[in-house]
């Protein structure tokens, strides 16, 4: 058995976790891998005084790892776009395999990186880039090989899910965000998490590997959770739904839906029960039906678990011939389709609408007739006299599935009525059936 | 790209599903696999008049498949122990790879079959043998490669889970079983499902691949669900627990716990929410923490999904050298440990106890002192005056985690009291923390 020599770039949370788990479980991992996985080089801009690297050479220049002839596999854990891309392409250029946990890198530069790797005959693995410790890329690329995957829905940002979970107790978004920041669950600048950008990176990768289409992050739609209110959460619950920040990808004949936004999901569905910082990815295949993968989407050792699984895979895969390796995005390049990402107006969904109506006779009839004219059918409607305040009363409607364009036109028309006050609140809903 | 020629043995539910999915999704599967997967031979004792096999040669002699020189991969879907074993060993002997969905075969004869395959240099794949369409063997053998797995808990028999789910509405076991038989969810002889034998087959396989120990089905403990009553289900719910028929495997320094029995699980845990015929496998790894895999555990195309994923893997794996293949039970043979399966007396668990006490002063004190003498701490206790009937009153106790031996001794002592009527009902409980 030949040893596999690993060089780690980046010694932050995940880099530290990877070093520690590889060291602690070395014997167990060798028993699974069929070879020893040795760390022969570590580089990071900052020293970590809290870590004991033993006899492993350390430098503050990450390109040292890429240029070290003894290194077989470069583990990229520095994050970010440009330097990471340069590092990974340099590694590929030097004939080294790469393992990365960098979702932004894969979602934005993946097409280019995979093409370079394919040409160079090396392997680039990225299980840790999607949903942290959950082996969901393995499930979608290999476990689902028999299936035409119709849709994917994921809770793939722990910070957002934590915030929405806590808001069910009636707390405001800003309050919970602050708490999450204090607890270290949310960054000082929470934009990436709460606006859905991080989730869109992961969703882009899942959609490509599920459907066999190129990565198209720039066309993903994102809507954050900062406008979600405890009021709407409570009323969704009364309708039998829970609000989750979902990434949804759906394959349709016309193209791909690719979107991250707050979404009502039936409380009776398992994905509605995924709370706190945990992640889950649900997918529907034509043969298997619905399967779901659940676990920690972040954290030092949880993410390291996926990084190391990739290293073990690379050790195996690198011994096989190129044509029979697991394709980067699940499908061989020549089997991929250039399907477009659909615009949001073309997306199909159900909708939760909250309309602030003036308390006048005939308002409900006007709302109902506008919806009907736009071909929108109502699943539930809720209006409570007890919620009348200052002559205004909320009307809450859950629609059946329609084209988003229809709902946009109906909302415009409703907002132009003198009987309707302010903006109509709109949250998308999915029934998964 | 070389085509892979597949021969299917057995054309029942799963065999038919495999034929249909491989045919329907042939192009998509080739795009993922990097080669064409062609069915070149089918054999089954019975003809299936409802299926169109096209130009694929069919025979009623299953060994024809094994002896066909054009067949690269033999797919064993006949079920049962002895003929299946003979068939698989003959295929291996003829240098063919094997894919099987046969959990009984793997759990009972797996050690011998894997050894033969290892010697012959062929691959035997069995994803479909555990939890049907859920790619859980891939998760545990490859996705968890970095982890020391501490325990595994699974709802791995759909029939049993369906029955327990329906019993929550207050219905008796026998009633629901009959309905499940009428719906085709349960066999005419339901022993394999409701007594936990089927679940023990799957648990045995999961435990070996998780812990790196040989398959030891004969030492698995099974307790069925036929004694579970709507009364105990309701009282468990009041304590915040749900009763599930779990397969539990735990790795301890002294050995392996391997047991299938009704189990109280906290309602707040995701696994408690897995209802109906669906399956889920929860596992705890030292690096990743808890992950869970959910989906259909049976059905024609769901199981076919796993069979075909294995065929695709075999096509890839067969191109790599033996030493770097994924080991059969997750670990290379030389890395496996010969840990014993512990007796049930050595198992550690919490316990739900229902004691029928005579309504006399001091009974509760006697019960409490017996528990205390055996070192058993009480988590919750419930006794309701309103349930007093014929001078008898149920006392319901949930204990903290103890050794099963302690509980057995305490129960013996309680049952010998003149204040206690009949047998003490005992159901194990797990908190997963």
Number of helices of chain A: 14
- Provide the domain count of chain A: 3
Shape of chain A: elongated
Examine the secondary-structure arrangement and name the CATH architecture of the largest domain in chain A.
3-Layer(aba) Sandwich
Tell me roughly what share of residues is in helical segments of chain A: 25-40%
Looking at the chains present, what oligomeric state does this protein adopt? homodimer
Unreliable segments of 5+ consecutive residues of chain A:
none
CATH homologous superfamily name of the largest domain in chain A? NAD(P)-binding Rossmann-like Domain
Would you tell me the structural class of the helices and strands of chain A? alpha/beta
Strand content of chain A: 15-25%
Structure description:
Chains A, B: Pathway: Amino-acid biosynthesis; L-threonine biosynthesis; L-threonine from L-aspartate: step 3/5; Amino-acid biosynthesis; L-methionine biosynthesis via de novo pathway; L-homoserine from L-aspartate: step 3/3. Chains A, B: It catalyses: L-homoserine + NAD(+) = L-aspartate 4-semialdehyde + NADH + H(+). Chains A, B: InterPro entries: ACT-like_dom_sf (IPR045865), ACT_dom (IPR002912), Asp/hSer_DH_NAD-bd (IPR005106), HDH (IPR016204), HDH_cat (IPR001342), HDH_CS (IPR019811), NAD(P)-bd_dom_sf (IPR036291). 2 copies of one chain form a homodimer. Chain A has helices at 13-24, 26-33, 63-66, 82-93, 103-120, 136-143, 158-167, 173-183, 191-194, 197-211, 230-238, 300-317, 363-373, 404-415; strands spanning 4-9, 37-43, 58-59, 73-76, 97-100, 124-125, 149-155, 221-222, 241-252, 255-266, 278-285, 289-296, 348-358, 378-382, 392-399, 402-403, 425-429. Chain A is an alpha/beta fold and 433 residues long. The first copy, chain A, has 3 domains: 4-134 and 300-335, NAD(P)-binding Rossmann-like Domain (Rossmann fold), CATH 3.40.50; 141-296, Dihydrodipicolinate Reductase, domain 2; 348-429, Alpha-Beta Plaits. In chain A, the strands form 2 sheets. In chain A, strands 7, 8, 9, 10, 11, 12, 13, 14, 15, 16 and 17 form an 11-stranded mixed β-sheet that branches. The radius of gyration of chain A is 24 Å and the shape is elongated. The N and C termini of chain A lie far apart (49 Å). At the A-B interface, helix 1, helix 2, helix 6, strand 12 and helix 12 of A face helix 1, helix 2, helix 6, strand 12 and helix 12 of B. Strand 12 (289-296) of chain A pairs antiparallel with strand 12 of chain B.
């Amino acid at each position: 058995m030949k040893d596999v020599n690993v060089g780690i770039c980046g010694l932050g949370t995940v880099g530290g976790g990877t070093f520690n788990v590889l060291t602690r479980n070395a014997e167990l991992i060798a028993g699974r891998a069929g070879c020893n996985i040795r760390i022969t080089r570590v580089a990071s801009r900052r020293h970590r005084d809290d870590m004991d690297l033993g006899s492993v050479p350390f430098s503050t220049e990450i390109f040292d790892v890429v240029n070290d002839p003894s290194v077989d596999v470069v583990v990229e854990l520095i994050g970010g776009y440009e330097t990471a891309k340069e590092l990974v392409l340099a590694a590929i250029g030097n004939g080294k395999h790469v393992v990365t946990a960098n979702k932004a890198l894969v979602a934005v530069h993946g097409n280019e990186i995979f093409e370079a790797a394919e040409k160079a005959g090396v392997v680039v693995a990225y299980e840790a880039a999607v949903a942290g410790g959950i082996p969901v890329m393995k499930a979608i690329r290999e476990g689902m090989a028999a299936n035409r995957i119709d849709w994917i829905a994921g809770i793939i940002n722990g910070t957002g899910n934590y915030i929405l979970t806590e808001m069910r107790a009636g707390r405001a978004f800003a309050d919970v965000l602050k708490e999450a920041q204090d607890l270290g669950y949310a960054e000082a600048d929470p934009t990436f998490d709460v606006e859905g950008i991080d989730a869109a990176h992961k969703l882009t990768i899942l959609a490509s590997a599920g459907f066999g289409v190129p990565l198209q992050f720039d066309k993903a739609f994102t809507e954050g959770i900062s406008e979600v209110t405890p009021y709407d959460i409570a009323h969704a619950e009364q309708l039998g739904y829970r609000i989750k920040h979902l990434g949804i990808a759906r394959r349709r004949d016309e193209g791909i839906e690719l979107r991250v936004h707050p979404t009502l999901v039936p409380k009776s569905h398992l994905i509605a029960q995924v709370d706190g910082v945990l992640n889950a990815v649900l997918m529907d295949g034509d043969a298997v039906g619905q399967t779901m993968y659940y676990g920690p989407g972040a954290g030092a050792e949880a993410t390291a678990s996926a990084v190391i699984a990739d290293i073990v895979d690379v050790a195996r895969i690198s011994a096989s011939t190129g044509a029979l390796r697991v394709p980067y995005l699940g499908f061989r390049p020549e089997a991929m389709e250039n399907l477009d990402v659909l615009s949001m107006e073309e997306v199909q969904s159900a909708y939760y609408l909250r309309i602030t109506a003036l308390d006048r006779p005939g308002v409900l009839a006007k709302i109902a007739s506008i919806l009907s004219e736009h071909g929108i059918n109502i699943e539930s409607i809720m209006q409570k006299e007890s919620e009348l305040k200052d002559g205004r009363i909320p009307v809450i409607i859950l629609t059946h599935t329609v084209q988003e364009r229809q709902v946009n036109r109906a909302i415009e028309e409703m907002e132009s009525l003198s009987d309707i006050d302010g903006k109509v609140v709109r949250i998308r809903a999915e029934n998964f059936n």
